[in-house]
Recover the amino acids of this structure.
């Protein structure tokens, strides 16, 4: 999972790969003609691997590995809640802690 500073760095690489600009491709040594998606997104996967040690992650999946998208750890199973405002753990169905400041109540 990426904290906000790490996410900004990876998101910048992802954005550059999406745009496929000439400067971005020259900077990373990607051929200007017929560059594959694999080649264009290699800098995203490489930087993510350097940050986390996880190899072979899909570039689209990497963009969902942002800590701020998830809630606190479940008090029962320890997995992160699926959103910061989740009322129930999606993994074990335990209600979220009522006293957690991250969980919004109506």
């Amino acid at each position: 999972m990426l904290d906000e500073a790490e996410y900004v760095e990876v998101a910048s690489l992802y954005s550059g790969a999406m745009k496929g600009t000439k400067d971005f491709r020259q900077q990373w040594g990607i051929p200007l003609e017929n560059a594959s998606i694999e080649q264009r997104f290699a800098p995203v996967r490489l930087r993510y691997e350097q940050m986390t040690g996880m190899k072979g992650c899909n570039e689209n999946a990497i963009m969902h590995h942002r800590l701020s998208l998830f809630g606190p750890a479940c008090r029962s199973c320890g997995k992160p809640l699926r959103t910061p405002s989740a009322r129930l753990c999606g993994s074990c169905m335990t209600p979220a802690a009522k006293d957690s400041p991250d969980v919004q109540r109506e």
In short: The radius of gyration is 18 Å. The CA atoms of residues 45 and 61 lie 10 Å apart.
